[in-house]
Amino acid sequence: MLISLRAMRHASRLSVAVSAALVLPFPAFAETAPSKGGGAAFTDLDKVQVHGHRDAVEAERAQTPGNVNVVDGETFYARSVNNMADSLRYVPGVWAESGTGGDGIFLSSRGSNLDATDYDNNGVKVFQDGLPVTTADGNNHNRFPDPMAARRVVVAHGANALTYGASTLGGAIDFISRTARDSAPLEVFVNAGSFGLVSGRLTAGAVAGDLDGQLTVESKARDGYREHGRESRTGVYANGGWRVSDALDLRVFATHVDNDQQLAGALTRAQFDADPRQADPSAVTGNYQLNVVTSRLAAKGTWNIDADRRLEFGLSYEDQDLYHPIVDKIMVDIDGPGPMEPVEVFSLLMNTGQKTWAGMARYHLRAGDHDVLAGVNLADTRERGGHYRNDGGRRNGLRALVDNRSRSMELFLVDRWMFATDWTLVYGAQGVVTRRDVRNTDVASGALSHPKADYSSFNPRIGVIHALGRGNEAYASLSRLYEAPTTLEMQDDVRGGDATLDAMHGGVVEVGLRGSRPESTAHPAWHWDVAAYYARIRDEILSIDDPLAPGTSLSTNIDRTTHAGLEALVGASIPFAGGVHRIEPQVSATWNAFTFDGDAVYGDNDLPAAPRYVVRGEVLYRNDDGFFAGPTFDLVGARYADFSNTYRVRSYSLLGLRAGIERPRWELFGELRNLTDRTYVGTLGVRDVATEGDAILQAGAPRSVYAGLRLKF
Fold this sequence. Notes:
Layout: H1 5-22, H2 56-62, E1 68-72, H3 84-87, E2 94-98, E3 105-109, E4 125-128, E5 131-132, E6 150-157, E7 171-177, E8 186-193, E9 197-208, E10 211-222, E11 231-243, E12 248-262, H4 269-274, H5 281-285, E13 289-306, E14 309-332, E15 343-367, E16 370-391, E17 394-420, E18 423-437, E19 440-442, E20 448-449, E21 452-469, E22 472-483, H6 487-491, E23 504-517, E24 525-545, E25 553-576, E26 581-596, E27 613-623, E28 627-636, E29 639-640, E30 648-649, E31 652-662, E32 666-673, E33 681-684, E34 697-699, E35 704-712
Parallel strand pairs: 4-7
Antiparallel strand pairs: 1-6, 2-3, 4-5, 6-7, 8-9, 8-35, 9-10, 10-11, 11-12, 12-13, 13-14, 14-15, 15-16, 16-17, 17-18, 17-19, 18-21, 19-20, 21-22, 22-23, 23-24, 24-25, 25-26, 26-27, 27-28, 28-31, 29-30, 31-32, 32-35, 33-34
C-alpha cells in the first residue's frame, strides 16, 4: 500500500485524541440537575452520535488476496510528476517509462505489452472513478488520465483486478478524481524546470449544502531533452456533485484535453553513442507527431441502500481524434543507377476518430460473515478514419480506410466469507464476452481485410486471507487469466487475410504479506507489502516489427510463456529528538522472470523490454516545521531488445535529490534528477533478431532540475 507517512502519523495522533475523548468520565456528559446547594448549574447537552467511516478503497484492498497498491495523489505535489510514469514511480510490478519525458509512455504490468506494439499499451485496463477509460478492445493508445487530477490512484495487479471486472494480464489502474469536498476552495500550482518545462494549474471549487462543483484549467509546454521532442497540452477538468439524500450521491465529470507531441524517434546504437539527445533523422523529415484531442463526459451514482447494501452505477462517453504521422517515406530505387527516380514504397500517417461508450454497475452486500460484490462493465468502441501517406507530417493521399468496431461485457461476482476468526475465504469468477470486427480497405486495390471474431471465457478465482494481528495479513490465491486481442493486433496478424488470433489465457498463483504499524513513542511507523506470483500463459500474443514495412507489426500467438515475479514495497518513519525530526525511507523493488517456455523457435529465452529488476526509493529527512530533503535512487537491471536474446541493453543506476516545505496554505518543492548525468536507455523497440544497425533505442532523461509551488486559498 502506498500512503504518505505524514498521513499515518496524523492518523495515529488523531486516534489517540479521539480515544482520550471517548474515555472521559461519562458523568461529564450526563444530564445533571442544578445543585441544591446553590452551586453552578450544568447545561443540558444534545445527544452526541459518533459515526465510524470505513474507507471503501482500503476495505476492498484488505479483502483482496493479492497485491493492490494505493497511491496518495497529494504526494504528486511534493515532486515533479510530468506524466503517468512519474506518478507510478513507487508502484512495484509496474514498469512505466517515457521515451522523451512527455505524456507518451511505455507501460507494462507483470509482463504485459512486451513486444513491438508497445504503443498500444494493452494489458492494463484503465478506469477513472470506477468507469472504464480503456477502449472495448483493450487498447490505451491515445491517452492516459492526468495523474495530477487524481485524489488517489489504485493499482490492482494481474488477477487482483477481479473486483474491477478487468480482463487483462496486467490488471487495472483506477484514477479517483479530486472534488470540491476534499480540496481547498482555490488552488494554484506551477511547475517549471529543465528543457523548457512550464506548467500551471488553477483549481476552483465550492460546496453549497448538497451541491458541490470543481473546475481545473491546466496548461503545459516543454521543449524536451531530445531534438524534435516538443509538447504542448491544455486541459479542462470539471466535476459536480449532488447529495440527493443521505443515501444517494450523484456526480458528473467532464474532461477536454488537447495534447500535441512531437516524437523524436528511436536511434541506432551508433547514433545513441554519438549523441543520445538527437532525433532519428526520419522523425524530423517525416515530422513524427502524436496529436490527440479528447472530450469525455461521465456520470456516476452511489446509492447506500442501507448499512449492508450499496449500489454504484455509471455511464461515460469519450471522443478522441488522433493525428499521428509515424513513418517517413521509404524510398526504393527500382532500377539502381538507372534513369528512374526512387519511388516511395511506404509511409504512414494515421488520422482516425475513436468513440467509446462505457458503463458499469456494482452491487455490494454484507450478510452475516459474507461480503459480496457483483458487477458488470460494458463498453462499445468505434474507430473510423484512414491511413495516409506521410509527407513531412501532412496527409499525402489515402492508403487505407479504417472502420473497426469492438464490444465487451465483463460480469463478475466475488464473495469474501469470514468463515473463522482471522480467516477469510475469497472466491468468485468473471465472465467475459467480447467481439472484434476489423475492416481495413486498401484504396488502391479495393481489397477488404476483415478479421472478425467473438471471444468468451469463464475465469474463476479462489484465495484466502489470514489476519496475523495488529493489521498484518498473509494471503494466497489461484486465478485464471484471460485477455482477447486488440484490433491493432488482429489487423497485423502475420498470416494476413481474415485470419484471427486466439485470446491469451492461463493461470496464476500468488502469495504475499502486508501490514503496517503506526508511529508511537517507542516504535517508528512502518508499512510493507510483499507479493510473489507465478503465471503460465498459453497463446500469449506477441508482435515484432515488420522489416519490410517499419512502423507496422506482425502479430502471432506463442504457445507457452511464463510470467513470474516478486513485488515489494517497504516504508518507514523513524522519529528522533523527541519526534520533532524523522527519517523516512521508502523502497519499491521488483524482480521479473518473463520467459518463453520450450518454444520451438525461442526455447526458454527471456521476453524482451522488461528489466530483470527495478529498485526505486528515497530516504527523506522531515521535521515538524514541514521541511523535507533527501536523496532518491533508481537501480534498473539489464533487458533484451529482441526475442532471440542477441541484443542486450545494459543496466543503469541513477541518483537524485529532492527537498521542499509543506505548510497548511502553501507547498514548495525542488527536485534534481540524474545527478551524475548518466546516459542510459529509457525505452526501446522490439525485434525478432535485433542488430546494431536497428533504430530501437530511446534515451532516458539527462540531468534535470524541477521546482513546483502550490498555493491554497
